[in-house]
Each structure stands twice: as structure tokens, then as C-alpha cells.
Structures
1.
Amino acid sequence: MNRVLIRPILKKTPYELFNGKENLGKFDEKADLGIFIGYSLTSHAYRVYNKRLMTVEESVTLSLMR
């Protein structure tokens, strides 16, 4: 019910209008391509350059052994 087009002129579903993203198809990419930069100096995280957004992101790593 949430996937029905509300206005054919917009060619978007209510979900796309509300969230601002389009639904991924079966063969669409589900992740962004990134380049590993290194590890963070202040926390247990690694830094990755996101090519699509052109930003540096920090991702937290889980450490099982301390």
C-alpha cells in the first residue's frame, strides 16, 4: 500500500518522497565504495573515505580481545 504512486507527474512513491531516497532494485549497488585511510588516533575505529559522498567516515570496530 505504501508503494503506490500518488502523483504520476512526480513518479515517486510516498516512501521515496518522505525519506528522500529511491528504492534499490535487485541489481543496484547496496553499498558505497570507499578507500581505507587508516585507524583513528582517539578511538577504536577505522577511517574510510567515501567516494560517493566525498567525506571521511569513522567506523567503530568491535574488539573481542582487549
2.
Amino acid sequence: MSNHGTLNAIDVGTTKTCSIIANISDGRNLRILGVGIEPSKGLNKGVVVNLEETKNSIRESVRKAERSCGLRMDSAYVGITGRHINSINNKGMVAIAKGDRRVSNDDLKRVISSASTVNVPNDRRVLHTLTRQYTLDGQQGVRNPIGMHGLRLDVESHVVTASAAPVQNLIKCVRGAGIEVEDLVLESLASAEAVLTPDEMDAGVLVLDIGGGTTDIAVFKDGAIWHSAVLPVGGTQITRDISIGLGIPFDIAEELKKKYGNLLISSVNQKAEIKDVCLGGDGHSIMQQDLCEIVRARVEEMLRMALLELPRSEYLSLLPAGVVLTGGVSNLPGIDILTQEVFRLPARTGQPRDMFGLAEILYDPAYSTGVGLVWWGARHAREAYPMGRSIPDKVTSSIRHALFQAKRSLAH
């Protein structure tokens, strides 16, 4: 948290960088104080490929956010994604040593530290250790064992790791823009904070955050993370297919995708022509159906790739709450219906909620990660024992909690 009491976030995406300055009102509503949005440069599929260009995009985004509210951003929660991110599920176990056999805070620290002990190569870093559930003397599904009596405490954790080089490059860009990193947060976890309801997380739900360069996947069950993955495909691939398929420049293909893209092919007039000003004044036009068929083919391919990331035999029973789509691509008309067809599950489009102040522009799925980063920061700042804590290498943070030292030693 910054020294003036605000919560700050920077979503460094493949196509845009969004900086947000906010605070929490009554513990329930997000008051947006400042927003800065800048086209991203220097990233490919969520990974920094040009330090100077990325740093400049971040700096300009932060400057716009600061100027809109008159406050300075000193530090921020920063989203991270990319194909280099992996996750595994791990278990830990400790004996309850106290004479009264009551689970204490120290027992909780020890068991989570035990679950964090995974073999991480020197070229990788632990980003998160996220608790799935506790088991106390064989009783599963325990969410908070503190104060309960028992002899043995087990925990199942979801451990997220990332390649060290992309992590360090992102940190270097943020710091180069004059901002300290409070935490690095997996983008699908941040987006889930902004778009999911507690009931969905309890029942079982899949979040698909389809951005410009990546599709971020997160499965939640019983109120906790169950599975996560990152696919190196997104809206940029759709635009590239349009550009190649219709023989038009990339920037024009992007504009037409946003204005005329529709996944419900049956609702598109087969004879409808697009004679947009961006195509020039020489009478050049394209058929809208041709455009929409290209868009649908690529989106369907992305959805099927995401489907392959799920446990094949049990995903239908694992996800009774269905699929929640977010990210910029989820603005395409008909994407919820196509998702229902592919997954055979209910689907809806999710956007940030419970905001006021300078929030109007953020009520859009494209900004779920940025808003979710603020909610993540708010929740982890007030919880003594957060269920997840990202540990970027050598990143200082004003939030100290029970597992910081254990995880930091792992990250190094």
C-alpha cells in the first residue's frame, strides 16, 4: 500500500498498459481515484521483449493515472502472465505439538511452509503458494483450522512458478518507470478477484481471461484455486488471421474486428458489405460474413485449446457454475454462446463490479485484471494469513505475513 493510503495496480498487457489508483470504501466498494491507459509496446505474448519500450509504456500509463487524481504512485501490484508460468499441486503435513493439541498460528505457518517446499530449478521462481484445503486428523475440507483440536494437520497447496528472466525483466521495467513492486500476481487470479462471486468459487467455476497475447486459465472449487495455466494465444492472433485472410493491414484488421466481429454467423447478413472509412475511399469493401468466419474459427480454436487444459474425465462435474469469460476478446458478440457449445457448460461474460469514482471506463472485461489487482492488494493487506502471496525475486513489500521468509528463501 502506498504511503498515502491508496492501493495501486499496473496491468502490463500485450496490447495495453493500465494503471489504477484506488482505495476501498466500507470494505466492499472500490473507489477509483485515477486511471491511466496507454498502448503497450515491447511485449510479446505477455513477456517483455524490449525493456525500453515497455518501461516507457508503463511510465506514461502511470503518469496519466497520477495526473487524473493528483496523487503519486510510489508502488503497485503488478500482473504477470506468459507461457513460462507453470503450476503444480503439492501437499504438506505437520504434527500438532502443543499439549492441548490446538492448532495455532505457528502450526499454520509450518504446514504451509512444508507445502511450499518444491524442487524449483535455479532458473525459476515461486510466484504463489495458494492453499486449496486443510485436512485435520482425516477431516477434509477444513478452511480455517486455527483453534481446532487435532494431532495432524495436512494442507493441499497450488504452487505457481515462473521463469526467472521474464520475472526480473518485468520488475526492471516497472522499477525503471519509478514504481516499486508490491507484489507480482498471476493475471488469472487477479481477474478472478474482479469478476467471480463467492458462490461461483464455492460451486466450481472456470475463468477464461482472453487478452491480447495470452489466454489465462483458472479453475476454482470450494472457494480455492484448483488449477491454473497460460496459453500463448489471444486477440492478436485473431487480428493477424483477419489481416492475412482478407489482405488488409494489421491495424485496420484490428479496428474491423472490434466494430464488426460477431461469433453468431447465422445472425450476419450474408450479403452485408463492410465499407468502412478505414478501408479507404476507393470503394474497397469486404464481406462481413468472411470477417466473422475468420474470427469464429480462431476463437473456437482458442476455446478448444483451453478445454484440453482441463481434467478431461471430471471437468463437467468440477464446474457446475460453468465458465466466466473476461479479457478484451470476451467483448465479441456471441462468445458466451460459442463457449457453451464447446464446453457444454453455462457461460457468461464477466466484468469488474462494485466500483465508483472514476470507474466508468473500467466497467469492461478488458480491465478485469487491473481492477482485480487492486482487490487482491486490498484483501491481502487486511488478512493476517492470506491464502496466496506472490514472492517476486528481491521485491520489497509493505505487506508482511507469516510465510514471507519461508517463501523468499524458496524464491532465491
3.
Amino acid sequence: MSTIPKKKVLAISGSTRSNSTNHHLLQAIAALTANDFDWAFWKGLSDIPPFNPDEDKETDTAPSPVLAFRQLLRESDGVIICTPEYAHGVPGALKNAIDWTVSSADFSHKPTALITAATDGKYGHAALLETLKVIEAKNIEQLQLLIPFVRTKINAGRITDEATMKAIRQLMDEFKKTVLQLPTVTIRS
């Protein structure tokens, strides 16, 4: 009896803090969907240098942390971004990392879910949503969730708010449908 391999999901936290609420939320979502997805958590956000188009004229000339990030994106069947909002905007480190993927088109047609989990979040969420649309993240209009006042809804890495849990389950059901429509990514060396 053959088993169908799990789809690979890359989890990206927009926070560079090691103990952020966004990291905890991604871990909780991974636990909820462990039977559906093989999760990889990217921890290299702080390693990405400032975007410089002069260093990105060809896809293989970018700095090594950028090349590693792009490789993880290519190896993933889908991406989930969970981010805070900083000063009514997208965290700079996250926007910078995404900027490095424009020329390589690694988000193009890649199922991508956006969760903005912050105190408010609506401004940063709207801005990042526009960026993900421009770089052609697949089904982004349906794969988005804003969780305001997130610290009142998560405790010790667990989702404690019933409405938030319901919204996350709905998002992940839609994400799973989108990811399953695509063939599993196979990277050849």
C-alpha cells in the first residue's frame, strides 16, 4: 500500500524575535495540521542582507542567504506567512526578504497564506497583501487572515480564543484545497 507524501509547507514569521507570538502561532497551526503537511520553519530572516538590485542581476548571483531562502521557497508546495505589524507597516526584514524574490519569481503561483497577528494589524496586512498580489502569490485573496489583539487569543503557544481557532481552521482548509490542486514539488539536483 503506497502512501501519498505530505505537501511541504514553508512557515515564515515576519518577526525577528525568537519568542514572538507569530512564531508561537505558526507552531500551533503546524500542530493542528501535522497530518496534512510537512512543515519547515524558516529562521533566516535576520540573515538576509538589504535588497540590492545590483547584486541580483541573475538568479544565481544573489548573496548565499538569499539563495538558500529561494531554494526553500522552490522546494515548498505552499507558504504561510505570519507577521506582526510595525508602525502601521510591514516589518522591514520581511519586506526586504520578499523583495529578493521578485526577480526569481519564487512566489509566483505559489499557494501563500498571509496571517497578520498584531495589536491592530490592518495597515501592515493591507500593504503586505498588495505586495503578495503583485508577485502573484496563488489564491492570496482567499488565503488571508487578520488577527487583531493577538496576545489575548494565544497563551503559552496555544490558540485560546474560539473564534480565532475557527477562523484559522477555515483558512487552513482553504489553504489545503489550494495546495492539493497543484502537483507536489520535486527538485532535481
4.
Amino acid sequence: MRRNRRIASVGITSLVAAGAVAGAAVAGYLGLRAEGAAKPGTYTVKAALSTRQSVPRAKGTTTASGAFTGTLKVATKGNGILTWKLTYKRLTGPALSAHVHLAPVGKAGKIVVPLCAPCKSGAHGRKAVSQAVTAAIASGKTYVNVHTKKNPSGEIRGQIKATAASGGGGTSINPYANLVVKATPALVAQGKTLSSNLGCEGCHTLSGANSTGPTWKGLAGRNVKLTTGETVKATDGYLILAIEQPDAQIVSGYSSGIMTAAIGNISLAQAKALVAYIKSVK
């Protein structure tokens, strides 16, 4: 028992140290400048946790599950306050700890927000988070993981989704708003190959013709009308968000869920290459 307490103490100390550098680490991962923050306002956050999402796959159970809910209040400078609640059931043993980690679906990543250690179902709290961590949560690049003795790498996991609350930050949550992609010949070629490998042109024509998704011909820099009635410009940041979070801003006349189901998760580096290729399609 004493040994376990010492281990827990060391773990908590390590988490505090990790938190001190989390902002810089997240900013580097996202490739963000300071002005690439989430739009100020209040967002609802949630994640459905299950064993099948764990990386590596959880051992000893397939029925454990949980839920992470709360709000993310984003200040004008982009930093935020995360208010959260965690519930779970049917774990293989006590929850030793739970955290918010940085990584897309299917990847394991570093801790950016420690939640509890040890934990009980119904645990809740309030955490101040940096601009970079706030942007990562808003952009769907974080997940919640609950760790047990049998599954120290995580027994149940779920990707966090953030949605603008009524009267909150509006329709756009775009941490890539100020990113600019330099369409070099090499990056354009990389994007063209990636488009072919992912089958992008099965939904996005290069001729201007309508298809399952908007045509890529002349798309870059064009004004785009969304299902919300808002009109936005197809900047590099808009295009990256459209690739990274296809359901964040749906173009009028098109449906949600199609691109997510078709291609799954795309890394930021891949998204930049695709944007370079899209910019070349005049």
C-alpha cells in the first residue's frame, strides 16, 4: 500500500511537470501561431469512451464504457477553462488515473490535461488550459483515457468533440484560421498522390461539375455558403478545417458524415499537402 502511494505521488508530480510544457508541445504539434486560437465563447465537450478505441486494445474486457462531458469556456486570448465530469462502468478494476491526451483517432499521445488519480465514476473538476490545449480540444485532436492496473495504457478511451453552445463562439471553431500553405511543386505533387490514394476525386471533381462533395476547381479563395446561412472564404485555414473536421462547416447543398466515413482521420501534414493540390486546381 505504501509503495502504491509512493508510485501515485510520483505520477502526480510527473503530470504537473508535463502540464508546464504541454502548451508548447501542443502548439508544435498543431503548427499553430499565437493567433491560431479557438474562437472565444462557450463550447460543450463530450466523448463516448469504449474499449475498442483504446490504443493498444484493452485486455480482459469488451464491455467497459464511459462518458466524458462538460464545457470549454474560451477567453478572448484563446486560453480556456475546462469544466468536466467523468463516468464509467464495468472496468476490470479501480481507475488508477484519467487524462486528456493529445492525438488523433487511432494514435496514442502525450498527456495535456490530468483529470484525476485515482478516480471514481462521477469524478468532476475544473481546469485552466492554455491557448494551444484549448485549440487542440476544439479541433478534435484530444481524447480521454482511463487507466487501470490491467490496462495501464488505457482501458477505455474516447475522442473529444467540441460544439459551439447557444450564444457561444458562433459557427466556426477553427484553430487553423491563420495557417498559410505554400503550394510548392513538391507539396502539390504530394497532395495529388494523396488525393489519388484516398480516392478524393470520387467525390470532388476537378472539372467544376457537381458531385458528392464540392468541386475542387477554383475552390481555393472562393466564397462558400454554409448550411448555417453563413458565407465564408475558402482560405487555406478553411480548407484545412474542412479536411481535418469535415462536419465542422458543411457547405450548403451537401450532407454531413460522408467525408468522415470515407477517409477517416487525416494528419495536419497530409491536409496541408491536399490544400496545396486544391490550390493548383484552377
